[in-house]
Amino acid sequence: MSARSWSLAPIAVAGLLLGCDPGPPEPLPPHTLAFGVFGDGPYYVWEQGRFRRALQDMERWDVEWLIHVGDILWYPCSEEAYRERRDQLDALDIPVVYTPGDNEWTDCHEERPGGYDPLDRLAALRRTFFPDPSRSLGSVPLAVVSQARDTAFAEFVENVRWERGGLIFATVHVVGSSNGMDPFEGRTPAHDAEVARRTRAGVAWIRETFDVARRDSAAGLVIALHAEMGLPPEQPDPAYGPIVTELEGQTARFDGPTVLIHGDNHELIVSHPLTDSAGRTVRRFTRLETYGSPDIGWVRVVMDTLTGAVATEPRLMRGWW
């Protein structure tokens, strides 16, 4: 199919390969807004140039913010590397809403990233990227509502929500590597307890977000997280069971479209993976998985603020640099 479609129906499209300035974007249709999605990169030094071009490309297009779905790097898991990536995101002239991936903390116990305790890296990540839970990243931050305002989940500064044009948007901290359950040398009960508590917080945040959407009669709802959780046709991962169950149940009770955005598997996919009790495809639920290393690109998402319908425009950077 064409790389650009304004039908505002959930579609899978081929990536547009960009090696030079493609010119200005076409005007958005009435009653729509656009935002960008990026994740899982850059991992290697030779991907840095394409990453910089992707960021520049976003600034040229009519997007209100960027949602970064995590895996901001592969290694090292140092605070210097965190700050370098944050500085790049803060230099953007659009807001950046970031939700963590597994590379930047749960997998940091591996030798190459530095052999860190994942819980130590989680604390460092929160200090670096979420010093003010009420504001996004970017040179023009977006005002957001953080789950940290709830004293029962005060540490979850990274779970945020915002509204625009009759649509509700939220991020939930759910990562790959079986949601942080992969075994490693030195794993303790504290690591298991972190997964359980983060999962409870995620379920509560999803439930509250859908409650707000119903209360406000939202036209549509967007939830962004990192992990590929085993949605069909993939095999389900039990580590994500409570999150998937909550999403399925809440989607069934919400009249508008729901869009789930994630990364993790590094493959561009737009699909309708859920089915109802009769085995029929749930068309109101759309899954968008974005690019990942070695493919460095972003996806422009256009949503109708009256109906919640969605169209996608992938923008893949070509070349080695």
Quick recap:
With 321 residues, the protein is of the alpha/beta class. 25% of the residues lie in helices and 19% in strands.
Question: What is the rounded Rg?
Answer: 18 Å
| Separate helix tally | 6
Q: Based on DSSP secondary structure assignment, what is the total number of beta strands?
A: 13
The residue-averaged pLDDT reads 92
List the helices and strands in order.
Answer: EEHEHEHEEEHHEHEEEEE
Amino- and carboxy-terminal Cα gap: 27 Å
Helicity range: 25-40%
In quaternary terms, these chains amount to single chain
Which structural category do the helix and sheet elements fall into?
alpha/beta
Which residue ranges are poorly predicted, with pLDDT under 50 across at least 5 consecutive positions?
1-16
Strand percentage lies at 15-25%
Largest sheet: 7 strands, mixed
Output the strand order for the largest sheet: 5-6-7-8-9-11-10
Query: What general form does the structure show?
Result: globular
Task: Give structural attributes.
single chain; 321 residues; alpha/beta; 6 helices; 13 strands; globular; disordered N terminus
What does this 3D model show about the protein?
The structure is a single chain. With 321 residues, this protein is α/β, with parallel strands linked by helices. The protein has six helices and 13 strands. It has a seven-stranded mixed β-sheet, with helices on one face. Strands 1-13-12-2-3-4 form a six-stranded mixed β-sheet. The longest helix is centred in the middle third of the chain and has 27 residues. The protein is globular. It starts with 15 loop residues before the first strand and ends with a strand. The N terminus is likely disordered.
